[in-house]
Each structure stands twice: as C-alpha cells, then as structure tokens.
C-alpha cells in the first residue's frame, strides 16, 4: 500500500508539467468548440472521455461538417490507432499478473505524453504511477477546454495559435531526457524525425494521412531497433 501511494505521488509530480501543457492546448480546443456552437458540458465531456488532441480537433471538424457517425468512427480509428502500439508497449512494462481492471484504467489514460513518462520509468511500471499522472493531466485537459469555451472569442487568433506550441514543448520534454542517457533512443528519435521529413517532402508520400505516417514510422523504426538492439530481460 505504501509503495502504491509513493508511486501515485511521484506520478502527480511528474504529471504537473503535462497538465499545464494540456491546459494551454485544450484551451484553444475549447475556443473552437465555442465557435462550433458546442455548449460547455458537451465540450468538456468530449475532452474528458477522449484525451486525444488530434482526434478531438478532427472530430470537431467532422461534427461541424455534419459527417455521419460511421465516417467519424473510421477517422478516429485511423487517427488514434497509434495508441494501439503504445498499449502493446506498456503491456510489456507492467507485471504479467496485473489485474484486468488496472489494465482498463491505464488504457484510458494513454496519451503521447503520459505514455512517454510511463514507459521511461525504470523497472516494472506501477499502475499507480500512471494514475498519479492522470490525476493532474486529465483535469488539466478538461479544465482547459472549459475555460476555452467560456472565453469564446475574447483572445485573438494569434494567441490561441501560439498556445498550441505548448504541445510540442511537452513532447520535447518527454523525449530529450531519455535520449541523453541512451544512444539507441537518441538514434531512434533522429531516424524517426528524418523519415517524417521525407514523408513531408516527397509529393507521392504527402497524400498519406498523418496518423498512418506515425504508425508506419513507429513500426519500422521501433521494430528495427528492437531487432538489432534488443533489451535483455535482466536489464529491463
């Protein structure tokens, strides 16, 4: 019990920067919800139940365009399919005897940033660490949406656009620390960035959706790294 409480407190401390970044990004999402005529309850409910910036922005655009439920569902499946890969990775990070209810609760909180700080924890991952991160990250995402809806069109477009930069700052904060200590991780990051740039520059590859690009790059780069530089069980 004491170990779980310690892991939970550590997760809260780790999740505070994520929560602040989430607040800034979801604030701009809340403003778009206001422009799309969504009321505060609907907007906050969307953020509290999805936790996916790309999926929510795309979903909101499709709702505004009066897309069908099937079209929205297929789009969300493609956009958020990267979370399947993250779930597979986290399943190897937790103990084999972890109860199903822990697995379900952890799956709810899998985002790019929460996954990043969770997978970087040494040894086996205590579910309560992830719960600690979620304790502050989820309210940060939801409250940002709420304040964005309430604020409406008060702030100019330049400011709301600048708030979205916080998301990239969070991602850098997640990947830089492990890259400093592990050359393999640093190499994977650099190669992934190069491949992403290639996809963006070659006209024939530009038609591929961003979600599919992420999945392809993740599978190829991570698969090659796991094959050529496997982590021994005793080192995990």
Walkthrough of the structure:
- There is one protein chain.
- This protein has 13 helices and no strands.
- The radius of gyration is 19 Å and the shape is globular.
- The two termini are 24 Å apart.
- It has 236 residues and is mainly α.
* N-to-C order of helices and strands: HHHHHHHHHHHHH
Number of helices: 13
Oligomer: single chain
Which structural class should the secondary elements be placed in? mainly alpha
The residue fraction in helices comes out at: over 70%
Which regions have little confidence, pLDDT < 50, spanning 5+ residues?
none
Q: Which sheet architecture does the biggest sheet show? A: none
> Which percent band covers the strand fraction?
under 5%
Shape, per Cα inertia axes? globular
* Chain-averaged pLDDT: 83
Extended strand count = 0
Write down the Rg.
Answer: 19 Å
Distance between the termini: 24 Å
In short:
This protein has helices at 2-35, 40-50, 53-64, 69-79, 82-91, 100-108, 112-119, 127-151, 157-163, 165-181, 183-201, 203-206, 210-228.
What layout of secondary structure does this protein have?
Elements: H1 2-35, H2 40-50, H3 53-64, H4 69-79, H5 82-91, H6 100-108, H7 112-119, H8 127-151, H9 157-163, H10 165-181, H11 183-201, H12 203-206, H13 210-228
Helix pairs in contact: 1-2, 1-3, 1-8, 1-10, 2-8, 3-4, 5-7, 7-10, 10-11, 11-13
């Amino acid at each position: 019990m004491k170990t779980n409480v310690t892991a939970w407190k550590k997760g809260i401390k780790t999740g505070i920067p994520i929560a602040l970044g989430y607040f800034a990004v979801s604030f701009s999402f809340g403003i778009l919800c206001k422009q799309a005529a969504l009321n505060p309850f609907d907007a906050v409910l969307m953020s509290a139940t999805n936790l996916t910036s790309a999926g929510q922005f795309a979903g909101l655009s499709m709702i505004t365009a009066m897309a069908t439920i099937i079209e929205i569902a297929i789009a969300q499946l493609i956009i958020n399919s990267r979370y399947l890969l993250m779930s597979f990775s986290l399943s190897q990070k937790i103990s084999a005897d972890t109860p199903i209810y822990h697995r379900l609760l952890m799956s709810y909180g899998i985002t790019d940033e929460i996954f990043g700080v969770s997978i970087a924890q040494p040894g086996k991952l205590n579910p309560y660490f992830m719960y600690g991160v979620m304790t502050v990250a989820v309210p940060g995402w939801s409250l940002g949406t709420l304040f964005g809806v309430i604020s409406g069109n008060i702030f100019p477009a330049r400011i709301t656009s600048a708030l979205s930069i916080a998301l990239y700052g969070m991602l850098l904060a997640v990947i830089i620390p492990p890259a400093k200590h592990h050359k393999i991780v640093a190499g994977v990051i650099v190669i992934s960035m190069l491949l992403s740039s290639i996809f963006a520059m070659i006209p024939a590859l530009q038609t591929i959706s961003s979600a599919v690009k992420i999945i392809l790059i993740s599978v190829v780069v991570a698969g090659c790294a796991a094959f050529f530089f496997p982590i021994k069980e005793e080192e995990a």
